[in-house]
Amino acid sequence: MLDSIVTSKTRIKLLLKFFSNNNSSYLRALAKEFDESTNSVRVELNRLTEAGLLVADEDGKTKVYKANNTHPFFNEIKNMVSKFLGLDELMEKIVNRMGNVEKAYIIGDYAMGIDSGTIELLLIGKDLDIEYLDFLKEKTYEKLNKKVKVVILESSPSDVMGILIFGK
User: Fold this and answer.
1) What CATH number has the domain spanning 2-77?
2) H helices within the chain, ranges in order?
3) How confident is the model over 121-131, as pLDDT tens digits?
4) pLDDT of residue 157
5) pTM (2 decimals)?
6) How many CB atoms lie within 10 A of CB 39?
7) Cα angle 117, 123, 128; round to 5
8) N or C: where does the chain have the smaller number of CB atoms within 10 Å of the terminal CB?
9) Where are the domains of the chain?
10) How far apart are CA 129 and CA 138, in angstroms?
11) Is it true that domain 86-166 has CATH number 3.30.70?
């Protein structure tokens, strides 16, 4: 969806980076992370800054970029990025159908705005439906071509946390 609206792959990476979480970064770090030239990243940073979607703050001689959360379309772009990543749908299904989920968090690369191809989740709850979790992981991989790894913390009566890790 997002890639049919935005044709620049670098611009998509920047939108994912800055609008999936409240990340900030500078030119050279972005170029290294994206494995692209600093010039191609600079061009897209300038375009997004001129459009008001990003703001740049000076940190010594370095410009640090972040999403402009006062932009009128900030929430809409954030929602589009979330839908593009498939995270909103995945989290909603987990919370609604997994059983007694107390809390659910996105951790790892996606929490830092990096599209690594693996979505890592932390679930806190008791008596979760592991079979349904396996089903969701398969469907997510089929639909989004992204692996899902899940860490489950189960609170016990003695306040000791047990950890179960499920990977694909």
Assistant:
1) 1.10.10.10
2) 2-5, 9-19, 27-34, 38-50, 74-85, 87-97, 130-144
3) 888 888 888 88
4) 39
5) 0.58
6) 9
7) 115
8) N
9) 2-77, 86-166
10) 15
11) yes
